[in-house]
Amino acid sequence: DAGVTQSPTHLIKTRGQHVTLRCSPISGHKSVSWYQQVLGQGPQFIFQYYEKEERGRGNFPDRFSARQFPNYSSELNVNALLLGDSALYLCATAHHLKKDWQETQYFGPGTRLLVL
Amino acid sequence: AQKVTQAQTEISVVEKEDVTLDCVYETRDTTYYLFWYKQPPSGELVFLIRRNSFDEQNEISGRYSWNFQKSTSSFNFTITASQVVDSAVYFCALSARGSTLGRLYFGRGTQLTVWP
After folding, report:
1. Contacts of B31 in chain A (CB under 8 A)
2. Span A36-71, pLDDT tens digits
């Protein structure tokens, strides 16, 4: 079975531009989460979507937005890019979210974004 | 609040040595989950193990073993007879029932280098 896929793999943008990152989950996975990983640090939670609804949001500005489509794929959008947005953006997917059980999340290869 | 501390930033060993990566976590939740992920230079986070808070049984998988101790809030990871292919950044992560369901809180990671 195919794993989590993300596109593009690399991206170079300039300050003020907008970017869209894409994630396709493992077949059967309905939950998608986005993480930002700055060089030398652990991933930081940005968003979580389940069944096309936002279930959680991390401490990121409104320039960051996301959505999930009927096929459970997802897009992360970042507006008005800043130099500090340069990072590896990781997508993680899981079968579903249960109140009393934590599903394992599987990560994609990430998109490396460089803002100049 | 949830927090994961990986005090070891970098560890270097020679092949065939045993190495232990430390992880200390903080949470007020009684139900929580702990994870270890491996991140090779390619960037993708590879899932290694998940433990829940009510199962303190230690686990062994090949050369890998994990020691979960609630009394000290630790979830340490040992690689026996290390190999060059084990070189990567290793992340410990926590997910707690009281926070956004499935949200992972990561430590800063430990860079493991295994020399031939």
Report:
1. 100
2. 999 999 999 999 998 888 988 999 999 999 999 999
- Nearest-Cα distance to chain A for B72, in Å, is 22
**B22 has pLDDT over 60:** yes
Q: How many residues does chain A have?
A: 116
Nearest to A48 by CA among A23, A71, A27: A23
Q: Which residue has the tokens 């990560």?
A: A107
Nearest by CB to residue A109, choosing from B43, B47, B109, is B43
B27-83 pLDDT, tens digit each: 998 889 999 999 998 889 999 998 888 888 888 889 999 999 999 999 999 999 999
Note which residues in 47-66 of chain B have CB less than 8 A from chain A: 47, 50, 52
Q: Rounded to whole angstroms, how far apart are CA atoms B25 and B56?
A: 14
Q: Which amino acid is at A21?
A: L
- Chain A interface test: which of B29, B33, B42, B44 (most A C-beta within 10 Å): B44
